[in-house]
Amino acid sequence: MTSIDRTRVERLVDRERERYRAEHPRSLELHRSADHLFGRVPMTWMSKWAGGFPIAYAAAHGNRITDVDGRSYLDFALGDTGAMAGHSPQPTVRAVARRLGTDGGATTMLPTEDAEWVGAELARRFGLPKWSFTLSATDANRWAVRLARLVTGRPKLLVFSYCYHGSVDETFVVLGPDGRAASRPGNVAPAVDPTTTTRVAEWNDLAAVERELAHGDVAAILTEPALTNIGIVLPEPGFLAGLRELATRYGALLMIDETHTFSAGPGGMTARDGLRPDVFVIGKAIGGGIPCGAYGLSDEVADAVHRRASSGEADIVDVGGVGGTLAGNALSLAAMRATLGEVLTDDAFAHMIRLAGTYTEDVRRVLETADVPWSVTQLGARAEYRFTRPAPRSGGQSAAAADDLLDEYMHLYTLNRGILMTPFHNMALMCPDTSDADVACHAEVFESAVAELVA
Description:
The chain is of the alpha/beta class.
């Protein structure tokens, strides 16, 4: 297996940084002059882009972005799934323009006809019958967790080490080097130590899940059906079915978050793999770029919530901590209806998944030819390469495989040659506008990047 010379990587990174800085003077100027922005960016995580400053963009359509320096990029990041429908898909643009400019009223705290259509479509795709809307998957997770605690009368969550469910406080727990639960490194000033609210297990370890559930205090297992934000880590055969069986046996709810794994198909992994969650969460992609999220409940969970609300135990219509003034607004629902109904269709997913398969095989061919110790994993319309082989089987293994220097090299190399990859990891996502030529372009650039590493 070919080893990679770290000194060579450092030289290549220096070269790519110099090129990046030289070719993006306007973006650099905007970054330097952003004195009134905390971290010099609209949101601090935008500092994650490689190169020392992010490119500022002027326009985005389909899977193309044009920056303020006039450079154009193939976008495989797609807003880390937020733009999985492509940038400004026309059906969504028309629906939003009609809601704002013709019908009027972006938000009124009143329902529209779109709401029931979207709820019925989500029920058709994912199987849960009752839906409520939010402005993000973080909100959907946060509010659904409250409902899970209400229904079960239990205080704790069970999550997986290095999971990601937005900025929900209870989910920033990992297994430390000693195998004990700990607040995730970098967690910003949690109100309480999250190990007091949350139990944690390694992904793909059913025995560990059962040990944690046996305490009898877990309200819900909150999980993606495949880890994504730490790099794609797929479930091993029988793992997801085991979670369902264990949740039922120990009286916990199974809460599935498909905000990223929606890439698996029109109904995500839930429909594709026949999962049976009690609570379901989704966000980002379903609104075509307009802020939105949703959570679905089984009839049993919905009925239990209503019983407790009717008894006066819980307030779900005013000050109970579930909801927000802009949640379920007319603009978001118009965007969701158009995106689900006309953009992220069955045919679109078939196209996207086929291209992701081609992308994956291209990357695998390059890795095998160069014999570098990396791996690549596909999840429907997305794929990701990792700097380790074999592919990680848990969040802990995936975190240990991180390589910041190689990560910066690959991101800068591709960006300098007109390709945007997701800054948080090496994920590529296809959208309805992605083409075979786009995937072939990535293959050529990726092959060149690897060849320079091992030359």
